[in-house]
């Protein structure tokens, strides 16, 4: 047995000493060619790599990560980051779907609430373009995260969607509801089958039409998602529908977590055809029990037997019915009315077991392997049909609080319409350091290798300077020379050109920055510690001093602020000195102004006395008064205006 543990990282930025993770509990990729992407970094353990099924892993983590749909390969390497591709909200359960005869990606997109969501379904083509969104119909709430899928056997014409509908309800009928003095509120479990092109409701089912809330196993206020039933904002979720399937006969299979039951419903009138688990079970469970389950799916049916799969959480986060969660394959005997667990899939031994208080799923793969998503724990695993674990992966650590509602594995061909992204780097712009190409193409699954071209001029000519096999999401190649311009070209497995990047100019760090760089890239700037903090001339001086120094040439001076530490400190000292000189000058002007004012007042008083005694002509007094006012205006920042022999002051513009 070969066990291979992989920390997918680009990952280590081709061995750069400055590669690093964003945090310890939910490691995140750092891509030089796509620094805008912050995809989770998988830690994958391949226990039996030769037995891992082909396909791509599709998941949508949320909480403390960049939320969105993601695709990874069997080695844990990122293939596509869809974060933000269909809106800013949370995505759930990306998977392939057959829409109008072609493979598409389907997933839910919307706003996450406690235990449910509000949003719509998204259908995306192989070029990662949204071709259709699907909404619930009628006068009720928008669709919920728990199920959005194209209906089996519908040729992609209809979709199944869950809806969590708050409504007023008389809860005084049962003391266990703990509401005896007025109307209460419940969440009605609803699902719809919607015609995709028209939005028409093909079929609708409501839990209160068929199942009384008294049959629940989760009463008001008992869990963090049940609600207390007192207000429209805290309705009691007595049902909690979380999966829908449909068979060739047109009947439906649903899972209700808070009822601890799986139901088969008539596609004609919605009546309950049978119930597994729950308060009124149709079948005797011979060798298993379950609770708080998710993701019920039909495998096969005939007149006497039904085979189905589901994920048994065995816990709601407060109570449990087993030590660990499992994936189950169950056979129902309709003659004997028994249900027997025929296969059980648990977490790999290396995990120490897994108990998921919420979320999770089980998927049987085309080769018979089984994929398990571990819900509130951001892990997934793959097992052979006999239960042996062949792969186990962590999207984040338990302490991260990252969750994944469902993860899946499917074949996929992605052909993005975007261009490959390229970043080129040289430490010293000479042959000694050479240069490095970093290239990626988000979502492309057919790239086998890359050609790299370089030129001294943007207009060319460009020479082929290297070719290398694609390695993970981002491929790097060193070139022992340096050129100013370059581009990359993606090739398929047969050597056919797929697409070229735009032409990029080689980045060369400044002399100062170069001390923090190696031959692969430059390191991230570290935050300034309090003890190392410097007086900041850019913000403090500009905001605090410049408004008081009108004669200071601010635009010219601040465009030439120094960059080195020594120059920075010298500038700091000079700015402080200038400020002190400005304050002293202002104080001196004030003192002189007051002194001059007092002296002038004494002088005028003497003149007035002489005028009264007839010793001084009045015209001379007015001229002296004009001089006084002009001097005062100059000192006070005013301009003197004389209109029709009257003296006035106006603010300086």
From TrEMBL:
<dbReference type="InterPro" id="IPR039535">
    <property type="entry name" value="ASST-like"/>
</dbReference>
<dbReference type="Pfam" id="PF14269">
    <property type="entry name" value="Arylsulfotran_2"/>
</dbReference>
<keyword id="KW-0732">Signal</keyword>
<keyword id="KW-0812">Transmembrane</keyword>
<feature type="signal peptide">
    <location>
        <begin position="1"/>
        <end position="19"/>
    </location>
</feature>
<feature type="transmembrane region" description="Helical">
    <location>
        <begin position="587"/>
        <end position="608"/>
    </location>
</feature>
<protein>
    <recommendedName>
        <fullName>ASST-domain-containing protein</fullName>
    </recommendedName>
</protein>
<dbReference type="InterPro" id="IPR053143">
    <property type="entry name" value="Arylsulfate_ST"/>
</dbReference>
<keyword id="KW-1133">Transmembrane helix</keyword>
<keyword id="KW-0472">Membrane</keyword>
């Amino acid at each position: 047995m070969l066990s291979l543990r992989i920390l997918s990282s680009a990952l280590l930025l081709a061995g750069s000493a400055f590669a690093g993770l964003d945090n310890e509990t939910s490691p995140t990729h750092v891509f030089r060619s796509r620094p805008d992407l912050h995809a989770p970094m998988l830690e994958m353990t391949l226990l039996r790599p030769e037995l891992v099924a082909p396909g791509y892993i599709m998941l949508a983590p949320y909480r403390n990560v960049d939320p969105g749909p993601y695709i990874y390969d069997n080695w844990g390497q990122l293939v596509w980051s869809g974060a933000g591709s269909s809106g800013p909200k949370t995505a759930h359960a990306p998977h392939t779907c057959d829409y109008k005869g072609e493979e598409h990606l389907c997933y839910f997109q919307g706003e996450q609430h406690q235990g449910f969501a509000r949003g719509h379904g998204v259908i995306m083509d192989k070029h990662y373009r949204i071709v259709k969104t699907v909404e619930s119909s009628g006068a009720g709430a928008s669709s919920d995260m728990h199920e959005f899928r194209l209906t089996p056997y519908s040729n992609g014409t209809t979709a199944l969607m869950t809806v969590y509908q708050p409504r007023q309800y008389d809860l005084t009928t049962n003391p266990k509801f703990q509401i005896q003095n007025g109307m209460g509120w419940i969440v009605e479990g609803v699902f719809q089958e919607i015609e995709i092109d028209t939005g028409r409701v093909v079929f609708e089912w409501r839990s209160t039409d068929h199942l009384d809330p008294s049959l629940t196993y989760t009463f008001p206020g008992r869990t963090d998602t049940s609600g207390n039933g007192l207000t429209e904002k805290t309705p009691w979720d007595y049902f909690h529908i979380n999966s829908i399937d449909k068979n060739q006969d047109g009947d439906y299979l649903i899972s209700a977590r808070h009822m601890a039951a799986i139901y088969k419903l008539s596609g004609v009138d919605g009546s309950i055809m049978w119930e597994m688990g729950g308060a009124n079970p149709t079948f005797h469970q011979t060798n298993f029990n379950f609770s708080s389950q998710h993701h019920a799916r039909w495998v096969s049916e005939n007149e006497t037997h039904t085979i189905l799969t589901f994920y048994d959480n065995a816990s709601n986060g407060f109570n449990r019915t087993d030590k660990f969660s499992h994936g189950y394959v169950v056979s129902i005997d309709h003659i004997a009315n028994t249900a027997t667990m025929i296969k059980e899939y648990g977490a790999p031994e290396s995990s120490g077991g897994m108990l998921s208080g919420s979320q999770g799923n089980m998927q049987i793969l085309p080769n018979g392997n089984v994929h398990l998503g571990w819900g509130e724990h951001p892990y997934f695993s793959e097992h052979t049909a006999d239960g042996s674990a062949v792969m186990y992966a962590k999207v984040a650590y338990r302490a991260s609080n990252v969750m994944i509602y469902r993860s899946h594995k499917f074949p996929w061909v992605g052909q993005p319409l975007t261009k490959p992204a390229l970043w080129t780097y040289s430490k010293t712009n000479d042959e000694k350091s050479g240069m490095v190409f970093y290239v990626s193409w988000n979502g492309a699954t057919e790239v086998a290798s890359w050609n790299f071209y370089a030129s001294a001029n943007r207009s060319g000519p460009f020479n082929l300077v290297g070719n290398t096999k694609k390695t993970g999401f981002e491929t790097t190649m060193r070139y022992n020379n340096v050129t100013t311009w370059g581009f990359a070209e993606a090739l398929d497995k047969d050597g056919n050109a797929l697409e070229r990047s735009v032409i990029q100019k080689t980045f060369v760090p400044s002399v100062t920055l170069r001390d923090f760089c190696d031959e692969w890239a430059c390191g991230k700037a570290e935050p300034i510690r309090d003890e190392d903090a410097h007086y900041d001339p850019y913000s403090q001086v500009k905001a605090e001093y410049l408004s008081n120094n009108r004669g200071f040439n601010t635009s010219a001076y601040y465009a030439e602020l120094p960059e080195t530490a020594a120059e920075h400190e010298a500038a700091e000292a000079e700015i402080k000195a200038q400020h002190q000189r400005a304050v002293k000058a202002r104080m001196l002007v004030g003192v002189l102004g007051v002194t001059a004012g007092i002296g002038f007042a004494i002088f005028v008083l003497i003149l007035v006395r002489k005028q009264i005694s007839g010793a001084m002509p009045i015209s001379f007094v007015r001229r002296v008064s004009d001089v006084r006012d002009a001097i005062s205006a100059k000192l006070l920042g005013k301009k003197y205006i004389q209109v029709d022999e009257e003296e006035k002051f106006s603010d300086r513009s």
